Amino acid sequence: MAPSSEPILQVSGLVKHYPLTRGVLFRKQIGAVRAVDGVDFTLGRGETLGVVGESGCGKSTVAKLLCNLERPTAGAIRFKGEDITRLSGRALKAVRRNIQMVFQDPYTSLNPRMTVGDIVGEPYDIHPEAAPKGDRRRRVQELLDVVGLNPEYVNRYPHQFSGGQRQRIGIARGLALRPEVIVADEPVSALDVSVQAQVINLLDRLQSEFDLSYVFIAHDLSIVRHISDRVGVMYLGRIMETGRDAEIYDHPTHPYTQALLSAVPVPDPEARDRRERIILAGDVPSPTNIPSGCRFRTRCWKARERCVVEVPALAVPEAFRGGTGSAVHDSACHFAEELRVVPAQGAAEGPAQGVAEENGSGPG
Amino acid sequence: MLLEVRDLHVEFRTRDGVAKAVNGVSYAVDEGETLAVLGESGSGKSVTAQAVMGILDTPPGRITGGQILFEGRDLLRLKEEERRRIRGADMAMIFQDALSALNPVVSVGDQLGEMFVVHRGMSKKDARARAVELMERVRIPGAAQRVRDYPHQFSGGMRQRIMIAMALALEPALVIADEPTTALDVTVQAQVMDLLAELQREYRMGLILITHDLGVVADVADRIAVMYAGRIVESAPVRDLYKAPAHPYTRGLLDSIPRLDQKGQELYAIKGLPPNLMNIPPGCAFHPRCPMAQDVCRTDEPALYAVSPARGSACHFWRECLHGPEQ
User: Fold this and answer.
1) pTM for this entry
2) What's the ipTM?
3) How far is B205 from chain A (nearest CA, A)?
4) What residues make up the domain containing A224?
5) Same domain, B34 and B166
6) Over the stretch A58-95, which tens digit does the pLDDT of each residue have?
């Protein structure tokens, strides 16, 4: 699945501020929630970009902006070269067909009064050109089959399905218009552990079957790593570090990424004593009042004078410029340095399955 | 033994039938020990804990059998008034969602202080002072000022600290934490788990940690009990279980964690869905999803076989599971 040269999505300088106002008659703006505060990334065809971050970092707002559910305050989102943030009317509708969303909560994102057939077929009501009227039922049944549900279930209602099955319905709806990009916002976090893997495998299979590009938003770092080609780590409305999955996970250079990775509980009791954990102090600052300079500095153990005054750019840090290897990737930190925080693979070895010596730490 | 649950049965009577939520659960926790109860939604892990605490909704819930021995006394035989004295003072619970577990219209200081007023008969003034102490103990910055604040004025992590403070206020012998960090972000989760582990060591309390997260369990638990369809299917010291699970369900859960050397491959997934508690499959409840199932699994319910003195597995084929598939 090699990403082709021309990106399918190109996001530059994306900003979304929600104004805070006071007064009823004389409404005046007293500030803004800076939910997304300058985000750039590209998504190649057939590629999966994972976006990770904690609650309030703006990752879901990015998803809404990509699907045109919100209009950005500034910046551009180019779909195959065309800026979709300025579109309206028919042109906007045409683009929306190509970028579809899968939501987190399969309990609230399906209308309980509609049958599964109506839910999955609803996109055809909005885009009638996508399927001729007489053909819809067959198409819907095909879609159900594709996501692993019995096609005979078209007349059932959402409450008759389990969480994992509902998420499959949501995915079928997302696929109905044959989009090129799917934005999945925490698609498995509401599901039980044993069902999560089923849905991840389904998304994986659909990607190759339909030549999809994914923006995969999640807070579960091990799932993001499994599914993503590239990863962006967000904090308070900005991407702090981005690179290929192995670059981020094995060679993180931004202190926030390092803390985030080290805090993830590892399913291996043997690693308890060997792990180096970085416990961050305090909470994420409010997005209405973002710290000056580097926005992470209030929780960073490395913060110095320079971090207060100068905003670090998202680029290859000075220390690594001209170098080679996996530490050379974009990281928005003045004092970036490599720190391995995830235990070597040998540690995360699964349950005894015969001999596992040849499982080295991988090429990285 | 601090707490011993013996052959507990709980069912819920609903309009659609009887849901058998807990079907013969036994476990024990000693002082200073952390027992993790791992399971998916509907496995009965929270219902068991509610029965221990005596906060099960009855009706529709009903305890139909078993014993809950706390410091030797069977709690199920006590009067509600006696149980109320135990609850809070000798055993306490930490809930997943602090925002809905705390009273939104009472300041956190008053909620913490209430523990001392009700159980210890302190004056309001002394209770307030103890509340500030507790808030400092769980490292809430500016405790003396914030004691007057209301729950909504705190962040998620801080609220969970207040819940912990409340649970530990009277230094109970047993604390049950039901998914205490599930609603929190990763970095805050680490802070809160660290705090909980530290306080447990200090007070030498028994801790039952209810969770669905294999990672959290590996980090803090001494023993682990895996639940499925209202039963314990495997019970083991934590290191043994991760090294070599003795039940196919545990093995499936461990195998479905994404691993580095499997990137780009299909993840292992347990097929099918958790059972409906109104209609639990006969024999071993896991057999419709089990890759090792044989005829005997469809008819005979496996007992919790002793794999070793410290381990049990409710699988007819635990030996095959433990030693891996013969290939």
Assistant:
1) 0.83
2) 0.78
3) 21
4) 7-228
5) yes
6) 888 999 999 988 999 999 999 998 999 988 888 888 88
